[in-house]
Specification:
The protein has about 850 residues and is α+β, with helices and mostly antiparallel strands. The protein is built from 26 helices and 28 strands. An eight-stranded mixed sheet has the order 5-4-7-2-1-10-13-12. Strands 15-16-17-19-18 form a five-stranded mixed sheet, with helices on one face.
Length: about 850
């Protein structure tokens, strides 16, 4: 059994589109039969794969990333294992049917990809789940890893006797430790999964579909508490998706597994969707966070149609998955669940994510993004493919009307059922459904990158549209202005933007918000007159979408260094006590503290002002409400009084009705660490007292936040890979390391980051590799010296393309922060 140097920690270039096209032309994969032995070792597992295929004559390759190989046979003929290089085994195939059998040993992983194995610190139990996305499937089983070589799968699993096994098809347990899964519908490799361990299960049924939920035993009570909400939403969404698409869910059971240390929010694996298990709430959360979970549930359900029934042929069309799932997820959540304010939450949580991504150096089109490398395409799972694409589909549905929009979708899904398709296939379906003039819409909105910038020229009485210089497009916008006089109320004004300048009726001195109801997609900036009126107007604005629109306008202006950070603080101080959507607090406050407060003329005073406003709001809101909780979270994040914080930890002086739970306690410990008024021993004791998965991650965040050399070395060892930790702890180390007010201590680490990033990139892989580069980026270091060290990374040939892309965007953000400082100054 030869040992191989190939390892998932040593990534190679991704599959090229040309290679995928050639392989798809050469062969058809008829079936996979996979046997996994998860019971023999905690480090590795046995993987026996039988692949039935039909081929034209020619050369191709098999994808395989093992720890070692026992044997590989093609039609009972032994192949030379030594030919396996960089995860690829060359194959010479004659015309006709073949059987390929690979007997290998694979490594369990701890980076959230492949077959991830996790140990729960609360009780020591082991849990496994599969994440095959993008290029991880070959580290679980031998395969032809590309989206357009679909095939049915049959799994056989040996596992410890106390484990349960769930996968893409219903499973039976004929004897202890043995699990047999039924054959699946044709699946792409990237959404094949297996979830195995001593999971706690909840089962139900709806409309002939078996439903299930699972999570770790240590959070079983929390899952039980959330189960009714989760299952109710699932049933409501199934009914609505069946009504909208008129195509039944075709993948048998529908299991939702909440798994540890998951990189994404969720993954749409047919029959067994996997979610990050912090979405099982072990502490009280705001309504905004609950809405985010609800839209995630609906998003993954939408994928059963967009992505699973019909799958993009290649990653340049990933919008056919993500933009649709994002749009339908929010739409259906708002329409049929208790969270009818989902669009408001979406505005606070996602709008700026998409707009900022669309203005970065890495911007790309929504559709047909031209990505030729599968691994590089991972970086396109961003705010453009989700938030921007969703917004454009919302526009398109309004323009075409639901009847035409949905009829085109039904035609597309039916014509390409269990197959693959391109954006042109979908365009053809919409055309058959009666969509006229679609070519110009797709050219302007779907295949051209960058947002228009819309601003009011008050002197001329015109709305000015400025297309992005690098990606010009002659777009038209159908939108509404919100106009309000000083001391008055907002009124809507319909506007059709058809050129570079559009006359608009705006009385002198009135405030104007451009597109606050998000009818279009553009960076909409408020002028000085409007900005001056907003602190008063926000206190009288009852429409929550308008309040979200206020913040999106201000944040877009700040992104372009056209809004003074002090003005942002003034607005926030007025807004905090009156916001009625805790989603606004959940998603706006972190940006306020990171951007406006830190760049204001007096950051300490600004934080103190927001602290007083948030604490007053927490005491004024209904006792025990999620608005009270959201206000308290802001209060903790801005606190500077050690005794006040420690009093809260001890349960003293809390606002009436507020409970000090695990999540809130760790927020306080992190804040004490940032202030430098606790130490490692005290943080270790807090972890020992409550050794949960949440505590372990937050302990890391707190430790690296301490203003000591030891704390920053603790973080940096994880960055370079000198100390290996699971993905959540790794990211917490990066996000907690760089703290405002610690610049003198952190200064040497800027040079070390720049020098050691290539080494650090090689120490990590896949999803985590680029995340680490971004999370550990010195975002708070705005000096000329820091910029001189960091800017050259944008063109470094020593960095993998995904890492270089993240760093380029991070440098862009640093340049924008410096532009704010240059224009408005800071203390």
């Amino acid at each position: 059994m030869p040992e191989l140097s190939e390892s998932p920690s040593q990534p190679v270039r991704g599959l090229q589109r040309s290679e995928a096209t050639a392989r798809a032309d050469l062969l058809v994969v008829d079936s996979y039969d996979v046997t996994l032995d998860l019971a023999s070792s905690e480090e590795t597992f046995g993987s026996l794969t039988r692949i039935g295929l039909t081929s034209h004559a020619g050369s191709t390759f098999l994808d395989l990333k093992p720890a070692s190989v026992r044997s590989i046979t093609l039609d009972d003929r032994e192949l030379d294992v030594d030919q396996l290089r960089d995860g690829r085994l060359p194959l010479e195939l004659t015309a006709g049917r073949h059987e390929l059998v690979v007997d290998a040993v694979m490594r369990f992983r701890n980076d959230g990809e492949g077959l991830h194995r996790s140990v729960d610190p609360a009780d020591g139990r082991h849990y496994v789940y599969g994440m095959s996305f993008m290029d991880a499937a070959p580290s679980i089983f031998a395969c032809f890893d590309q989206p357009d070589l679909k095939a049915p799968y049959t799994f056989h699993v040996r596992a410890p006797h106390d484990w349960v096994v769930v996968g893409n098809a219903p499973a039976s347990n004929p004897e202890p430790g043995v699990w047999e899964l039924e054959p699946t519908q044709p699946l792409s490799t990237y959404f094949v999964t297996l979830v195995a361990g001593p999971y706690h299960l909840v089962r139900d049924e709806h409309d002939g579909i078996a439903l299930g939920l699972s999570a770790r035993q240590s959070i079983a009570a929390d899952l039980e508490r959330d189960a009714d909400e989760l299952l109710t939403m699932t049933k409501q969404c199934f009914d609505e998706f069946h009504r909208l698409f008129d195509i039944r869910y075709p993948f048998g059971d529908y299991h939702q597994a909440f798994v540890p240390e998951f990189n994404a929010g969720a993954m749409e694996n047919p029959g067994c969707v996997t979610f990050r298990d912090p979405l099982v709430f072990t502490s009280k959360v705001t309504r905004g966070v609950r809405i985010q979970r609800a839209t995630t549930v609906a998003h993954e359900m939408a994928h059963q149609w967009f992505g699973n029934i019909t799958t993009p042929r290649w990653w340049d069309d990933l919008w056919l998955n993500e933009s649709f799932a994002e749009y339908m997820g929010v739409r259906v959540t708002a329409a049929v669940t208790e969270y009818d304010d989902a669009w408001v939450q979406n505005s606070f949580a996602r709008r700026q994510w998409g707009l900022v991504a669309d203005q970065r150096p890495s911007t790309h089109s929504v559709a047909g993004n031209g990505e030729e490398d599968a691994l590089a395409a991972l970086q396109n799972f961003d705010g453009i493919s989700y938030a921007k694409g969703s917004s454009i589909l919302k526009q398109l549905a309004a323009r075409l009307g639901d009847e035409v929009f949905l009829e085109g979708v039904r035609d597309h899904l039916t014509r390409h059922r269990f197959g693959n398709a391109t954006m042109h296939d979908l365009f053809a379906s919409w055309t058959r459904a009666g969509a006229g003039g679609f070519d110009s819409f797709s050219r302007e909105w779907l295949v051209t990158a960058g947002p228009d910038r819309l601003a009011l020229d008050r002197t001329a009485g015109e709305l000015v549209r400025t297309p992005p210089a690098a990606h010009p497009a002659d777009r038209s916008h159908s939108l509404r202005l919100a106009v309000a006089p000083a001391g008055g109320d907002w009124s809507p004004v319909d506007v059709e933007v058809t050129g570079e300048r559009t006359p608009v009726p705006v009385p002198d001195g009135d405030a104007v918000l451009i597109d606050p109801w998000e009818d279009s997609w553009a960076a909409c900036l408020a002028d000085k007159t409007t900005l001056a009126l907003l602190p008063d107007l926000v206190t009288r604005t009852e429409d929550p979408m308008l309040r979200a629109g206020i913040w999106n306008s201000v944040r877009s202006g700040f992104h372009h260094a056209e809004v003074d950070p002090d003005a942002v603080v003034d607005l926030a101080e007025a807004w905090l006590p009156v916001e009625t959507q805790d989603a606004g607090l959940t998603y706006t406050t972190p940006w306020l503290l990171r951007s406006a407060v830190s760049l204001s003329s007096d950051p300490e005073s600004s934080a103190a002002r927001l602290h007083r406003a948030a604490l007053s709001a927490a005491r004024a809101h209904e006792a025990g409400s999620t608005l009270q909780l959201g206000s308290m979270q802001t209060t903790v994040a801005t606190a500077a009084d050690e005794q006040l914080l420690r009093g809260w930890l001890a349960g003293r002086d809390l606002p009436d009705g507020l409970e000090m739970d695990l999540e809130l306690r760790w927020r306080i410990w992190v804040r004490l660490a940032v202030l430098g008024v606790t130490d490692r021993a005290e943080l270790d004791a807090a972890l020992d007292e409550e050794p949960t998965a949440v505590s372990r991650v937050e302990h890391t965040r707190a430790v690296v936040s301490l203003p000591t050399v030891e704390a920053k070395e603790f973080a940096f060892e994880r960055f370079t890979g000198a100390v290996s930790v699971a993905n959540y702890e790794l990211r917490a180390a990066g996000l907690g390391m760089w703290r405002e007010g610690q610049e003198e201590l952190l200064a040497p680490y800027v040079e070390r980051y720049a020098a050691e990033l290539p080494t650090a990139a090689r120490a990590h892989s896949g999803w985590v590799q680029a995340d680490v580069a971004e999370d550990f980026f010195p975002a708070c270091m705005v000096s000329d010296e820091a910029m001189a060290l960091l800017a050259p990374l944008r063109t470094s040939d020593d960095l993998p393309a995904p890492v270089r892309r993240r760093v380029t965007d991070a440098v862009d953000e640093l340049e924008r922060r410096r532009a704010v400082i240059a224009r408005f100054g800071r203390a």
